Amino acid sequence: MKFKLDENFGARTQRLFQEAGHEVETVRDEGLQGASDSTLYEACRSEHRCLVSLDVDFADVFRFPPKPPPAGIVVVRPGRNASLTLLESLVKQALGAIERMHVDGQLWVVETGRIRIHQAEEGE
């Protein structure tokens, strides 16, 4: 699957996606850091990439509908003062779920021990 990591993720997270066999690009690699959320969303739509972000603004399904394209949106929610270990654990949790389910056309909010899924409905 094809992913784009928002600028709040680094090389360690990129490696986790690569090691899981995914094609992954980063906002930083593409020179999109500082771009508006709308610009990033549209880039993912045009490239058919699933956006992975810590930015909860992407959980607004009215502003950023998860219907394809893009190939889904994953918002990782580690909570306040989260450690790098917790963040990596949540990313691994999402990657494990991606092995079992498709994220296309869905918004996933990944929290410790659970993934909330919003699927675009017909006509949305």
Q: Give me the strand/helix succession.
A: EHEHEEHEE
Taking the alpha carbons of the first and last residues, their distance comes to 24 Å
- CA radius of gyration is 13 Å
Number of strands: 6
Count of DSSP H/I helices: 3
Shape type: globular
Strand content: 15-25%
The side-by-side strand order for the widest beta sheet comes to 2-1-3-4-5-6
Structure write-up:
- With 124 residues, this protein is of the alpha/beta class.
- It has one domain (2-119).
- The chain has helices at 11-19, 37-47, 84-100, and strands at residues 2-5, 23-26, 50-53, 73-76, 106-111, 114-119.
- Strands 2-1-3-4-5-6 form a six-stranded mixed sheet, sandwiched between helices.
- The mean pLDDT is 91.
Task: Give a short synopsis of this structure.
The chain has 124 residues and is of the alpha/beta class.
SSE map:
Layout: E1 2-5, H1 11-19, E2 23-26, H2 37-47, E3 50-53, E4 73-76, H3 84-100, E5 106-111, E6 114-119
Parallel strand pairs: 1-2, 1-3, 3-4, 4-5
Antiparallel strand pairs: 5-6
Helix pairs in contact: 1-3
Search tags:
6 strands; single chain; alpha/beta; six-stranded mixed sheet; 30% helix; 124 residues; 23% strand
